[in-house]
Amino acid sequence: MVSSRISCTFLSRATERGLTLRLFCLLALGSLTACDASRVEEQSPPLALPVAIIEPSLQPSIADIPPETGPVGGEEAQPEAHERRPLSLRSWYEPRRPDPVLESIDRGAKARRAAMDEETRSVQEVQRARDAERHHRIQLRTSLPEDEIPHSLDTFLQIAHNPTLPQYRTGTCWAFAASSFFESESARLGGKLVQLSPMYSVYWEYLDKVGAWVDERGQSHFSEGSELGALLRTWPRAGVMPLEQFPGVRTSSGLHDHAALFAELESMLKMLEREGNWDRTLALELAAVILQRHLGSVPSRFVYEGRILSPQDYLEQVLQLELGAYRQFVSTLRHPFGELVPFEVPDNWWNDSSYCNVSMEDFVAIAERALDSGMGVGLALDTSEPGRDPDNDVMFVPDFDIPDEQLTQLAREYRIAHGVTTDDHGVHLVGIARVGAHTWFLAKDSGRGAFAGRFPGYFMLRDDYVALKGLALLVHRDALPAPGASCAAFAAAPH
After folding, report:
1. What Cα–Cα distance (Å) separates residue 10 from each residue in 25, 39, 46, 172, 353?
2. Hey, which end of the chain has fewer CB within 10 Å, N or C?
C-alpha cells in the first residue's frame, strides 16, 4: 500500500490529467502503487472526474501535499476543466449523550450533600431547643401573698384613658405609652378623650433617626426604641393624627410586625455607608418609601367630624395641648440634684438634656402627686426582674433582692451603673391605690407580657419597684412641686 504522501501526490496529479474513475478510486483507497498507475493510464481513456463525489474521509488534505509537487514529466500544468464546489456535508442536532459513570458520580455527590444538610438541620433544631429550654429555665419569678396585692382594677383611683392597644412585634412601646399619655391629657384639659395613632409618631421618628444617622456618618444610634419625650420633639413639626386615619399596619393579620421594616431600613443605611454616600435627601426619600410600604401612605389632609384638617390642625384645634408645659425627670448620682441633665441611655439617641435630676424619694413623690391630682404619668423603666409576676400582673421588689430598709439612692445607682437596671420599656401610669404600707401604681402596658395575666393590658407596680427600677418620668408641670423636686432652671428649659 502506498504511503499517504505518495498517494496524495499522485492523486493530485491524476485528477489534473483525467484518469479513469476506477483508477482514481483505486488510488484513493491505496490499492495501487505509483508504477501500477502508469500502466493503467496507458489502457484507460481520459475521464473528467468531479471532486465533489469523493467521500470527505478520502479527500486529500492540502497539508499532505509536498511543496515540490508540480507538472509531471516536464509538461506545463493544465488549467482545471471545471469549477470546484463546496463539499456536501450532512449536519444535524441530536440529544446530548450522557456519560452514565459521571452521572452516577453526580448523583452520589448530591445524595451526600442532601444527607449532610439534613444532619445540619437536625443539629440546629437540637441547638434551638436547648437554647429555648435554657432561656426558660433561667427565668426567676416570685409572687406576693394575695392579701398584699390589689384585688381588682377598681381598687385604683383612675384617670380617663382608652383601652390598651397592643404593640405586638415592635419595639415601639415609647410611642404607645406617650400617645396614651397625651390622650388622657387631652381628656383632662379639653374634656374629650381621643384615640391617637402611635404609628404616625413612629413614622416621623424613623425619618429623624435616618437624618441623624446620615449627619453623623453612621455614628448615631439606630434602633426601634426611643423615649416618651420624642413626641415633644416631632409633634410641633409634624402634628398628630387620630388612629382611624393612620392605623399604620398593612399586614394581612392586622397585627403590627416591624421585623421586615426595620431590617430593610437597616440594610438601606448599611448600603449607603458601604458606598460612602451621605446624601441626606436620598436617605430620607428611600426611608420614606420603606416606611410607606409597611405603614401606609401618610395623608396630608383628612376629614374629621366634617372638617378637613392637617395633622398640625388636629394638634392645635382638637388636642389643644401646650407641649411646652410638660416636664421630664430622672434620678441619678452621676449629676447633682436640681440640674437639667441628659437621660444617658441609647434610646435617647438625640441626646435630650432637658431632664431634671431629682432624688429617688422625690422621683416617686412626683408620680404620686400627679396621679393623686388626676394627671397621668409616663414612665420609662426596667421590667426584666424576678419581681415581675405576669400571672398576677404585679411588679415589686422581693426581700431577697433588697430589703425595704436597704433600698437607698446608692442601691439604685449601683444597679444602673452595673447594667442591672436598663431602659427596656415604657408605660403610662393611669391609676393609684394604697394597699397596706405601700402605694401601688396602675400601668397601662402595650407589651405582650401585659396580656397574659388577670387584667389584660395592665400591670400593677408597687412603689418600691418604681423607686428601684423606674428611670424617667414625663408629667405636666402642674404636678410640681413635690418637696425638693423643682429644678432652678427648669422653667427656661428648651423643649
Report:
1. 12, 14, 16, 96, 107
2. N
Q: What is the pLDDT of residues 358-393, one digit of tens each?
A: 999 999 999 999 999 999 999 999 998 889 999 999
Query: Which residue type is seen at 197?
Result: S
Q: What is the DSSP-derived secondary structure letter of residue 54?
A: S
Phi-psi region of 380 (alpha: psi -120 to 50; beta: other; left: phi over 0): beta
Q: Which residues share a beta bridge with 461?
A: 395, 441
Per-residue three-class SS string for 322-341: CHHHEEEEECCCCCCCCCEE
Spell out the residues 6+ positions from residue 421 whose beta carbon is closer than 8 angstroms to its own. 382, 412, 415, 468, 469, 471
Is there a contact between 453 and 330 (Cβ–Cβ < 8 Å)?
Answer: no
Q: Determine contact, residues 397/415, Cβ cutoff 8 Å.
A: no
Please state, in angstroms and rounded to a whole number, the distance separating the CA atoms of residues 298 and 248.
9
| pLDDT value, residue 154 | 96
What confidence tens digit (pLDDT) does each residue in 428-479 have?
999 999 999 999 999 999 999 999 999 999 999 999 999 999 999 999 999 8
Tell me what pLDDT residue 84 has: 64
Cis peptide before 71 (omega within 30 of 0): no
Instruction: Indicate the helix (H) or strand (E) that contains 425.
Output: strand 425-435
C-alpha cell read off for 245: 386615619
**Which stretches in the chain have pLDDT values below 70?**
1-87, 135-137, 482-486, 488-495
Contact 352, 342 (CB under 8 A): yes
Q: Report the distance separating Cα 346 and Cα 213, nearest Å.
A: 14
Query: Is 468:398 a contact under the CB 8 Å cutoff?
Result: no
Predicted confidence at residue 369, as pLDDT, reads 95
Collapsing DSSP states into helix, strand and coil, what is residue 378?
strand
What is the three-class DSSP state of 426?
Answer: strand
421 and 415 Cβ atoms separated by less than 8 Å = yes
What residue type is 319 in one-letter code?
L
* HEC letters along 267-331: HHHHHHHHHCCCCHHHHHHHHHHHHHHHHCCCCCCEEECCEEECHHHHHHHHHCCCHHHEEEEEC
How much is the pLDDT for 485?
A: 47
d(CA 214, CA 210) in angstroms, rounded, equals 6
